[in-house]
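In this section we walk through a basic example: taking a raw amino acid sequence and producing a predicted 3D structure, encoded as discrete structure tokens. The instruction is simple. Fold the sequence below.
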Amino acid sequence: MKAFVLKDAADNDRKIAYLIYYETEKRFYLEIADDVSYGDLPVSLHIYMKNGNRSLNSQQASDWVSQRIVPSERQNINQFLREMKIREYDDYSFLLMNKGRCSQDDCYLESIDGSFLPDSIQERFVTLIEDFSYLDRSRLLVFFKNGMVKKCDLSDIIKEDRYHGLIYSPERYADLKISGNGHELCFNENLCISHRDLYKKGIALRITGGEYLSSIRSLLVSTAQACEMLSCSRQNISDLVRREKLVPFIRTGKEMLFLKRDVLQRKADH
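The resulting token sequence is shown next.
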């Protein structure tokens, strides 16, 4: 992770916002400082704070960055890349070239240690996504970094009709992944749901992430544990599975996990 503070040279280098960049995913996120009012912001950020929003998701932050760099469609862009000794067009490289300066305002970026972001900004990250699991149809269980677990129905969060088919396609949930260290859940590069929307609209469960994982561990047993419980060998377990007398809950190659209740029932029946 790379972090930068956006300062306004026309206002005594006042700290306006904080830009975060994840190199592997090539995603930007921008957080507007709490003590900055709408009128203090450069015009390029006005549109994002109209509704009191101070956090830009990856698409919004990327759009903001694109306003401050040489456009990729520039007619002589290849010649420009050669002159600057840059192998390929990259938003991040171009942003660093002039510290994010542009003709629209007097703001510039200054690199900082990401671990020293202000407490007010760090507090926004307690609802970053830690993990998630698919339930059914368009519903997920989402685990947040503050320990909260929420049931989230994506059909209530993403209202655009063009995403309707995607949301209701169970096979597409295999593509769903956490992006930006928990900032978003993404189906693809263009369709992402922010941690704020999931946290705000999800239904809280009276259980923490740790308690949920503990409950899963108490429900499942490994092949070795099943052998011990049934006083048999791995070959016996494999034979039971082959004859469908014992059905694995999860099977990956030679490794199997069973529901403890199924193993106990098998033991009770014999």
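Looking at the output, two observations stand out. The domain at 215-269 is CATH 1.10.10 (Arc Repressor Mutant, subunit A). DSSP finds twelve helices and 15 strands in the chain. In the next section we compare this with other chains.
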